Amino acid sequence: QVQLVESGGGLVQAGDSLRVSCAASGRTFSSYAMGWFRQAPGKERDFVASISWSGGSKVYGDSVKGRFTISRDNAKNTVYLQMNSLKPEDTAVYYCAALFHVLDFLSDSRRANLYNYWGQGTQVTVSS
Fold it and tell me: How far out from the chain centre does Cα 72 lie?
């Protein structure tokens, strides 16, 4: 069992930066991969970024590559998403999720249906 709690969302202007966090509890945090997804109103949940259990491997969605950075601190049981150069189209609810079983991290970590636990989400709104 894993509990995930996101924080750090808010209202920012285009071009600003924001960091969202996800605190995990339950199962040993360093034993599983983590991902960030987002969902805008009326749209499907999209992959944003993922990070392996050690932090050694990271994957990014095409729309955020070069602007967003995922990181984790296993001592603090927390994963972060640093978002720079934010755009109005980044507006969404951002969810973190835990991924226990990975065969091919580069492909598996993009698939929302493979994740085992999800947080409740945090709203990020970017005004133009």
Answer: 10
Residue 96 CA to residue 10 CA, distance in Å, equals 16
From first to last of its 128 residues, what are the pLDDT tens digits of the chain? 999 999 999 999 999 999 999 999 998 999 999 999 999 999 999 999 999 999 999 999 999 999 999 999 999 999 999 999 999 999 999 999 999 998 999 999 999 999 999 999 999 999 99
Q: Give all strands (DSSP E) within 8-110, no chain letters.
A: 10-13, 18-26, 33-39, 46-51, 58-60, 68-73, 78-83, 92-99
- Cα 47 to Cα 31: distance, rounded to the nearest angstrom: 21
